């Protein structure tokens, strides 16, 4: 608007409600189409209640929508293939800070995968356990501690690798 360019809202990435961090928008349909054709590498940081035994690994578990009217997801054999890579950044008492890389892009994927493996994201009201929800409430945490930390993708015109980072973190 400031430059007088005609532009519209073309979201290329999205975040669950109460997830914060980097999102990518295109100013026009041409750039949007070019970026959608490229592989985007997403990195998230999360604080989980508990953590994985291994310091790194892959969660490969199919995700399906729960029966309507629910908007929530669950791990189910008839679900869509869903893969998340993780790496432990820090362990502290009952908490773990993870770096998460969604290989697929399913709705609620990171939240569902972490909960399924037994380390729900702190503050997650839908996928947390009773214990993790009580822990979050006792600390006054009212939102899930999940941050879209960075995006890496080729520039739509020059193909030079671009990397965007959130100044926020968990």
Structure description:
Strand 8 and strand 9 (95-102) form a beta hairpin. The chain starts with 9 loop residues before the first strand and ends in a 5-residue tail after the last strand. The chain is globular. The protein has helices spanning 29-36, 109-116, 130-139; strands spanning 10-11, 20-21, 25-26, 41-49, 56-60, 63-65, 73-75, 83-92, 95-102, 146-154, 161-165. Strands 2, 4, 5, 8, 9, 10 and 11 form a seven-stranded mixed sheet that branches. Strands 1-3 form a two-stranded antiparallel ribbon. The protein is an alpha+beta fold. It has three helices and eleven strands.
Any descriptors?
170 residues, alpha+beta, 7-stranded mixed beta sheet, 3 helices, 34% strand
Shape: globular
Q: What is Rg?
A: 17 Å
Please count the beta strands (DSSP E, at least 2 residues each).
Answer: 11
Number of helices: 3
- Classify the helix fraction into a percent range: 10-25%
Mean pLDDT value: 93
The biggest sheet amounts to: 7 strands, mixed
Strand content: 25-35%
Give a summary of the structure in a few sentences.
The protein is of the alpha+beta class. The protein contains 3 helices and 11 strands.
